[in-house]
């Protein structure tokens, strides 16, 4: 497990906005989640199994979504000091990271009316536009102040049935994650996971049993001298 008990630095790293996408399949039988392993030399959670995700790029803010997330999730994304224009960027970043790290497409068939921004060229070349339709805002976590690299991560969830590609075809994935695989939810904790991923799995299990947004979004808040769970209703 990562060391979260070290001394507080004099000036903690500023968290970068980030988005993670949790894909679920076979939710009616034996639910599975898509995860991959980070490299042993990675600067953040080395060798851990994680969901696809990463930092929001400025280009993500300008990506035109084919459809937004549902209103409840969008309102929750905008709370707790999030900049209004960031909400669409979070959705776009989650979809872009999924594409880059797994080669899977979550989007709507169609061309782009504008030139795709940097980082989106290959996604646009597949003939799809990213969409927030069907995505659910599930969890938020700010990484502890003792870590040298920190993120303010929003965890979004979607059903694999929304994918426009074969869910088992990872041939177009980059090298960010290895051993990409669908892991039965009841076996996920047998893998080497970051602490927060173990926590998120509880919320995934609770969300699978019903449709629509959860009653509230748990928020693991970390700041100098403060470490607590909050709720985004």
TrEMBL record:
Cofactor field: Mn(2+); Mg(2+)
Gene3D superfamilies, alphabetized: Nucleoside Triphosphate Pyrophosphohydrolase
PROSITE patterns tied to this protein: NUDIX
Source species, domain of life: Bacteria
GO function term, MF aspect, one: hydrolase activity, acting on acid anhydrides, in phosphorus-containing anhydrides
Keywords: Hydrolase, Magnesium, Manganese, Metal-binding
InterPro entries given in the database record: NUDIX_hydrolase-like_dom_sf, NUDIX_hydrolase_dom, NUDT19
Domain Nudix hydrolase, residue spans: 15-206
PANTHER family: ACYL-COENZYME A DIPHOSPHATASE NUDT19, TESTOSTERONE-REGULATED PROTEIN RP2
The name this protein goes by in its record: DNA mismatch repair protein MutT
Provenance organism: Pseudooceanicola nanhaiensis
């Amino acid at each position: 497990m990562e060391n979260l008990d070290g001394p507080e630095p004099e000036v903690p790293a500023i968290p970068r906005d980030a988005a993670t996408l949790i894909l679920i399949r076979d939710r009616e039988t034996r639910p599975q989640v898509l995860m991959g392993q980070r490299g042993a030399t990675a600067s953040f959670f080395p060798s851990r199994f994680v969901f696809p995700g990463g930092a929001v790029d400025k280009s993500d803010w300008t990506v035109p979504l084919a459809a937004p997330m549902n209103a409840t999730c969008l309102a929750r994304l905008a709370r707790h000091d999030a900049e209004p224009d960031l909400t669409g960027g979070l959705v776009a970043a989650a979809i872009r990271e999924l594409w880059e790290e797994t080669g899977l497409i979550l989007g709507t068939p169609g061309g782009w009316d504008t030139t795709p921004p940097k980082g989106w060229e290959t996604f646009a070349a597949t003939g799809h536009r990213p969409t927030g339709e069907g995505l659910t805002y599930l969890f938020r976590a700010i990484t502890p102040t003792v870590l040298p690299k920190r993120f303010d991560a929003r965890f979004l969830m979607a059903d694999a049935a929304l994918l426009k590609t074969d869910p088992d075809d990872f041939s177009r994935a980059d090298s960010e994650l290895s051993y990409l695989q669908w892991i039965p939810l009841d076996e996920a904790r047998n893998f080497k996971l970051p602490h927060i991923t173990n926590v998120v799995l509880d919320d995934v299990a609770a969300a699978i049993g019903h449709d629509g947004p959860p009653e509230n979004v748990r928020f693991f808040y970390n700041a100098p001298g403060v470490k607590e769970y909050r709720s985004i209703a």
